[in-house]
């Protein structure tokens, strides 16, 4: 992903405007590019299912079932919530670090993560089943 970003920036100058540290800007644009790639992959899989697989049933889904499952789950969330969750859970960042990277307040990060948790709980509740 980083190589693709550097190639892109070699063709079109990056949009760094100096409002944040260069490192936080790089982190943010890299995460956004990864989330965009996940969305693009979802569209690719959907198009394969519609146009290719019916005629060629041997075409299989991408490997890496756990990573694929995570990508599927993250697509169910708002992009800003998904980014905050990736920073907090996968990267182990604090709310202050996330706020710095995302260019928002620490309180907004807390709100994003709470909405993420609430949405995740709602997605995984099934009728007749109580959470413990």
Mean pLDDT: 78
DSSP helix fraction: 55-70%
Succession of helices and strands: HHHHHH
Number of domains as seen in the coordinates: 1
* Unreliable parts: 128-132
* Structural class by SSE content: mainly alpha
Strand tally: 0
What's the overall geometry?
A: flat
Q: Count every helix, treating DSSP H or I runs of 4 or more residues as helices.
A: 6
End-to-end separation in angstroms reads 39 Å
Main β-sheet description: none
Q: What is the C-alpha radius of gyration, as a whole number of Å?
A: 18 Å
Beta-strand content estimate: under 5%
Task: Give a structural overview.
- The protein has about 130 residues and is an all-alpha fold.
- The protein has helices at about 1-10, 20-50, 65-75, 80-90, 95-100, 105-125.
- The model is unreliable at about 130 (pLDDT under 50).
What's the short version?
The chain is 68% helix and 0% strand.
Detail the topology: elements first, then pairings.
Layout lengths: L1 H10 L10 H31 L12 H10 L4 H12 L4 H8 L3 H19 L8
Properties at a glance:
132 residues, mainly alpha, 6 helices, 68% helix, flat, disordered C terminus
């Amino acid at each position: 992903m980083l190589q693709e970003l550097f190639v892109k920036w070699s063709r079109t100058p990056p949009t760094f405007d100096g409002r944040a540290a260069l490192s936080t800007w790089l982190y943010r644009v890299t995460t956004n590019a990864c989330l965009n790639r996940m969305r693009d992959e979802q569209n690719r899989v959907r198009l394969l299912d519609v146009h290719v697989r019916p005629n060629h049933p041997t075409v299989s889904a991408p490997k890496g079932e756990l990573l694929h499952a995570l990508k599927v789950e993250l697509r169910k969330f708002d992009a800003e919530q998904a980014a905050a969750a990736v920073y907090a859970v996968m990267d182990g960042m604090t709310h202050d670090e996330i706020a710095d990277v995302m260019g928002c307040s620490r309180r907004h990060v807390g709100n994003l993560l709470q909405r993420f948790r609430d949405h995740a709980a709602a997605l995984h509740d099934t009728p007749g089943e109580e959470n413990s």
